[in-house]
Design a protein that fits this description.
The structure is a single chain. α10 crosses α20 and α16 (321-336) packs parallel to α18. The protein has 21 helices and no strands. Helix content is 78%, strand content 0%. The longest helix has 35 residues, at 270-304. The protein is mostly helical. The chain has one domain (3-430). The termini are far apart.
Amino acid sequence: MSPFEIGTISLLLIVGLIYLGLYVPIALGIVSFVGIWLIRDNATLAMNLLKIAISDSVTEYTFATIPLFTFMGLVVSRAGLGTDVYSVMNQLFGRMQGGIGMATVGANAMFAAVTGSSIASASVFTRVSVPEMLRLDYNPRFAVGVVAGSSVLGMIIPPSAMLIIYSFVAEQSVGHMFIAGIVPGLLLAAAFVLAIAVMARLTPGFVGGSAAGEDSMTWSETARKTLPVLFLILLVLGGIYAGFFTPVEAGAVGAAASLLLAVLARRMSLRDFWRTLIETGHITANILFLITAASMYSRMLGFAGLPNELGALLEASQLDYFWVMAAYVVLMLFLGTLLDTASIILIVVPLFLPLVEPMGMSLIWFGIVTVIGAEIGLLTPPLGLSCFTIKATLSDQRIALKDVFIGALPFAAVMLVVLILIIRFPVLSTGLLP
């Protein structure tokens, strides 16, 4: 077989193995290793490239952002800051029709800015927001749909693990990726709030519920619940944007500050601290394996010549910018029904980067498009991770997994509209870049 044929079969085999349940880094690593071995008929070369891929991943300085921001997010989650922010947001929106849904979106947006994890957001707000909406007679599908939809903000609002993974794969600045994610993240949150207002007006039966807010808070109580989160956001993102910190330094400062806040608030015991360290290690190791396997996969694609062949095919077909991006988005939406976000980024980005760069497109903007497009997969069956997380966290047997997916569908449509806007107006993602 030719290298191109081996590369194509390897790509299909990777997708198939991941869909069958094989651990993503193992599927990428094994198939890439065997693919290089077959293409060059040299097992020693494949082994040497694997060693280089591991060495590059471990010794990369910016890789330190992953454990630092992961630790910060876990500390914030364990300290209960998500619940505090939700109660404040409920004061602002709770008395409006659909207001608790809007409060959930607003709280998720703030929570995402200090956690960077959609799964953490889905887990926290399933426990906090869904019972409150059900108590006020909101439609169960709307209640879980709001949490599922707004949880994806953790993947785009920095510090986001997916933005970090993309920056490694595309060899872009983590700091620039963080800055580029601010406006699209806020735009997506605003679009969710607007969509809830429209649904409450046009389809009140789907939203349901009654307008209600929490007991009025004093200014001191409001400040106590919001200032810690605002402080962390300004410290980390403000420090990066102003040039005071590199992303790694910002991660270290944010991790130390979050731990200090949790200790001062007496919300972090020694047992919690130890569990947080262990979980940080597990998540970091998982991402390390992903990045190592992705490095090996990129090398296999280069040996197989798949990017060059794809580029030649697109050039021969004379597809313009619009059709290239349309094909890219459709491919991501399709893979989103089968694979998780990280898998989509690791498989698709190395294949399309050689096509995007010659067109003069910004790779920072391309990363934002990629992450949002892949995020939609968190809400689509059969492998919508946010939806599965919500169902696993819920103890209410009245809500089936089907209800979570149906409730999340309008928010997936809103994400697609925002994605089209960002593709049409790249300045939405690059406007804040220095």
